[in-house]
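Q: Predict the bound structure with 6-O-phosphono-beta-D-glucopyranose.
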Amino acid sequence: MSAAADENPLAEGLRLRRRPDPCILVIFGASGDLTEKKLMPALYALAFRHLLPEHFGIVGAARTEETDDEFRERMKQAVKDHARDEFKDEIWEPLAEGMRYSTLDFADDKGEDALVETLTKLDAERQTQGNRVYYFAVPPSAIATLVAEIAERRSAEGWIRLIIEKPFGHDLESARALTAEINEHFTESEVFRIDHYLGKETVQNMLALRFANGIFEPIWNRQFIDHVQITVAESIGIEGRAGYYESAGAVRDIFQNHLLQLVAITAMEPPIDFTADSVRNEKVKVLKSLHTPGPKHVVRGQYGRGFVEGEEVRAYREEEGVAAGSETDTFVAAKLFVDNWRWADTPFYVRMGKRLARRETTIAIQFKRAPHPPFEDGAAEGLRPNVLLIHVQPNEGISLAIGAKVPGQGMTIRTVHMDFLYGGAFREGLPDAYERLILDAMLGDATLFTRSDEIEEQWALVDAMVAMWQRDKTSFPNYAAGTWGPAAADELVHKDGRSWRRH
Ligand code: BG6
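A: Predicted complex:
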């Protein structure tokens, strides 16, 4: 246990999790950004806390030619650049000893054979007992072939788990086809579709907030809540990922997965327990009850030139690899309705986009106004309705806006905030979502992964939106980088007599 946890009574009991079985983690797509920026730093953080299996190995696989040593060197640099903990040789060396690299052309059987050979050897050296976690950080089109190859070469010994990065398919049809192809060889309990937002501490804390406290559930419904606002704003652009982003757009990159999962977590009924199926059964009910928004309830955007955090930035259409007349969306806002008993007629205003004014992911639960403020005219002029604001990132925490009397003579009421900040209460840095999720997959716990029926519901909604956009074109660019999106996104809320939360 770290010193901080020792001193902090709130952190007690934090490290009582079971250690996973011995295994090898195979990363397909090991030459990509995700491996360097997220996966390797997460593995290092797990090693740092002694949470990895005692017998463990990592095999990177990708098309790029690389030796074991070059791979280790690249990963070492990735840890130095991106890990949240200081670099320590005594943590790195044992991890690096179990690292191998295998060049693999996804269409070529030879590469597969070499990979199997590497794995068999490593099994013997590291005593990993044939257990495998395969991480697919590759485009959806490469997954089916790899899965079939893995199944074909499956040995009798050990278990297999497949972690599949988003996007899972490109639309409902391709997602269904991919599920069918995987199901030919593996059961749902062996498949872990990752949506890293579910691994974020603050997103899990939404479940704690709602279901570990008696005071919120009774008012968590249409009778007390006026509306919900969910914002996933990023100040970054597409960061050199034009190849992927041009065919995905904001709607497939974040709306289809992260954003709809935040809606599901906010709106779901209490599960009977915290097992994978109970939690996912409740989430899928929300996704099923989402009403497809009509054209007047959806806004699409694409950024033009502008200034972000004081720096001049290019328009989306000027980014490298993006077509000059690209119709790809970088912003989506929508007014959604969860058509069920709890939420009928309560709008969920959601918005997400790249190159917005700043990075901010929040869930705001806006309560109805007090029915009859008994104060003199003007006393409560500056008072806003109660808002419970979940800061998913950055400045992770929760804040409740309440009306309070301004000290002094008379009765003047203003809005003040009761704040809980993770940094203040728990004093330790938050783990990255990937740490939690990689470990959960090794432990076989799928609670924080999305099930195929959830993915399908998410695609059904997105497909309907995309079909609508093909009929009604929007002229792009329609917002300047560094702003909060197109004017139409403001109108979407204003015409209901509401406004987006103040920034
Ligand atoms: C990824 C998207 O899933 O999430 C990226 O592909 C996006 O485009 C990223 O930048 C945001 O993740 P986070 O954890 O930084 O909010």
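A: The chain has two domains: 22-165, 198-371+429-442+450-494.
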